[in-house]
């Protein structure tokens, strides 16, 4: 009888331990670890959203890794991360590759409007730039535009806007958006091309210091000039407005899709707004007065 009781007890303990281990390992949207790949140009907003998610769900651990946009997309396909942040439109071939590798429908989760901006030193006499200047400059051997490198989101987006391949364009390189700002005064005849999110945070001390070193050139399209301000982004009048979106290779509702949903809800969109970018999903604010 005692042996039967011991055997039953051991069986029950084993069953409980097995279920505990399964529960510990079972994936969930509010716990676990994952990596997000983001281009440096929109690293700030990605980190802010990741921090917000981890505050809401302390058992979730999110690592934000900086990687050039094209390389981040490739790593996502190779299952080296759960989420990648993108800004350019994928080609039909890339969409097909994504769907075949990930075995998911291509459904970009759009969460913010950002911009590629053109900057000059504060002392520069230049006050604006036209679309025609940009087109000609990107084909000139003088290489008047400084980008943060090949495979970057900024170069990809400008190339796409001009209906060109990045390899066909002429440009100079200083690695890193922040480095372009810091070193631009050494090249008074050049124009820096960076992502707005580099210094878009309105009350951040570092962002203020970086903004004070340069001026943003309005882009002239036709007879009108546009700035990457809230109206220019919201109505997408600024010619180089770009929409940031998430791609994931997670097929169920675990931490990656939990994070994406959070970023697109009102709380996540408030974080986007605090970053100085335009929220993609607008929520009506209702006030009841009695």
From TrEMBL:
The keyword Signal applies. It comes from Chryseobacterium camelliae. The keyword Signal applies. It comes from the Bacteria. Keywords: Signal. This is Phosphate transport system substrate-binding protein. InterPro entries: PBP_domain, Phosphate_ABC_transporter. Transmembrane segments: none annotated. Pfam families: PBP_like_2. PANTHER family: PERIPLASMIC PHOSPHATE BINDING COMPONENT OF PHOSPHATE ABC TRANSPORTER, PHOSPHATE-BINDING PROTEIN PSTS. Residues 32-263 form the PBP domain. The lineage of its organism: Bacteria, Pseudomonadati, Bacteroidota, Flavobacteriia, Flavobacteriales.
């Amino acid at each position: 009888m005692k042996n039967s009781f011991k055997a039953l007890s051991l069986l029950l303990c084993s069953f409980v331990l097995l279920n505990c281990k399964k529960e510990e390992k079972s994936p969930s949207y509010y716990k676990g670890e994952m990596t997000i790949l983001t281009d440096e140009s929109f690293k700030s907003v990605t980190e802010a959203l990741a921090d917000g998610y981890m505050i809401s769900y302390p058992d979730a651990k999110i690592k934000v890794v900086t990687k050039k946009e094209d390389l981040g997309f490739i790593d996502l396909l190779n299952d080296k991360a759960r989420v990648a942040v993108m800004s350019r439109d994928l080609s039909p071939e890339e969409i097909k590759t994504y769907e075949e590798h990930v075995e998911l429908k291509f459904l970009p989760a759009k969460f913010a409007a950002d911009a590629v901006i053109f900057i000059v030193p504060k002392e520069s006499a230049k006050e604006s730039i036209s679309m025609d200047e940009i087109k000609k400059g990107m084909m000139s051997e003088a290489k008047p535009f400084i980008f943060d490198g090949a495979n970057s989101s900024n170069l990809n987006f400008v190339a796409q806007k001009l209906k060109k391949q990045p390899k066909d364009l002429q440009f100079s390189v200083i690695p890193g958006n922040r480095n372009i700002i810091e070193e631009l005064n050494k090249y008074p005849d050049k124009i820096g091309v960076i992502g707005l999110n580099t210094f878009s945070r309105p009350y951040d001390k570092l962002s203020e210091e970086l903004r004070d070193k340069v001026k943003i050139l309005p882009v002239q399209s036709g007879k009108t000039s546009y700035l990457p301000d809230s109206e220019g982004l919201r109505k997408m009048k600024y010619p180089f407005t770009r929409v940031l979106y998430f791609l994931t290779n997670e097929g169920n509702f675990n931490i990656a899709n939990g994070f994406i949903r959070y970023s697109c809800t009102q709380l996540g969109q408030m974080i986007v707004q605090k970053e100085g970018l335009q929220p993609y999903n607008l929520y009506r604010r209702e006030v009841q007065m009695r």
